[in-house]
Amino acid sequence: MTLKVDEAEQGSWAVLRISGELDLVTSPVVRQSVHDAVAEGQHDVVLDLSEVFFCDSSGVGVLIASRRLMKSCGGRLRLILPARGAEDGSHVNKVLGALGVRRLFDVYPDALSATDAECRPLSA
Q1: d(Cα 34, Cα 75) in Å, to the nearest integer?
Q2: Using CA atoms, how far apart are residues 109 and 42, in angstroms rounded to an integer?
């Protein structure tokens, strides 16, 4: 399976819906999508990872680099990692938890919550 990135705007947020496998081959596409959003003036970015079926260390590296980029430009990065996404549970959520980096991210269950100023992130 390949990777697909669809971009939408929800309020002041750029929402990047990512589906497929996030690995060594496909992670540069996500990195470029985040850079493109920032270059277009978006400083609030949501990565919807609910349809990512596989994530390796390259994918995690891109998520961490995206977080660093957003912080450096005064922006915000939020992830969508629903409890039961990508068929049998969020693979990305499991990988981030296993690596001990889940706490670095503000995680929400859906795009509506992620773009709502009143909603609080899910606990790590």
Answers
A1: 12
A2: 22
The residues, ordered by sequence, that sit 6+ positions from 100 with a Cβ below 8 Å of its Cβ are: none
Cβ–Cβ under 8 Å, residues 4 and 30:
no
- Residue 7: helix, strand or coil by DSSP? strand
C-alpha 91/C-alpha 89 separation (Å) is 6
* 3-class secondary structure, 102: helix
Instruction: Please report, in tens digits, the pLDDT of each residue of the chain (124 residues total).
Output: 689 999 999 999 999 999 999 999 999 999 999 999 999 999 999 999 989 989 999 999 999 999 999 999 999 999 998 765 444 457 788 888 889 898 899 999 899 999 998 888 887 5
C-alpha pair distances (Å), 44 with each of 20, 24, 97, 104: 23, 25, 24, 16
Looking up tokens 């750029």, which residue turns up? 14
Angstrom distance (rounded) from CA 85 to CA 107: 13
Angle at 47 between CA 45 and CA 51, to 5 degrees: 160
Query: What residue type is assigned to position 76 of the chain?
Result: R
